[in-house]
Design brief:
Blueprint (H helix, E strand, L loop, with lengths): L1 E8 L8 E4 L6 E7 L5 E8 L5 H12 L6 E7 L4 H24 L1
Parallel strand pairs: 4-5
Antiparallel strand pairs: 1-4, 2-3, 3-5
Helix pairs in contact: 1-2
């Protein structure tokens, strides 16, 4: 089991927690916990597969270039492929954007 931490600049505010995926064989879970008073996105990653630090960094760098919520991102991985990681991150972003737009409309 390996734990990694990444920090990215963030400018978007999230009003509620987001959860996608499950921790199971070949899958991963992402939980986004709002921290609107911070100016960063902190990623706490736990993975069952050691030695893929550089790949995780590339996938996360690519994702966060599109923008980031001021939040704590918890990623729990159980051997997901980089493609699945990108899919789950996109799902989480889509839910977060929809939640933010919904809150702004009210």
């Amino acid at each position: 089991m390996q734990s990694l931490t990444f920090v990215y600049d963030a400018d978007m505010v999230l009003d509620r927690p987001i959860h996608v995926g499950v921790v199971a064989s070949g899958d991963l879970e992402i939980v986004i916990i709002p921290e609107p008073d911070r100016l960063s996105a902190t990623v706490a990653l736990r993975t069952s597969v050691d030695g893929f630090d550089a790949i995780w960094e590339r996938v996360l760098d690519r994702f966060f270039k599109q923008g980031a919520f001021r939040a704590r991102y918890q990623i729990n991985d159980f051997g997901a492929t980089p493609g699945l990681v990108s899919l789950r991150l996109a799902q989480a972003r889509e839910l977060a954007v929809a939640a933010s737009e919904s809150e702004a409309a009210q």
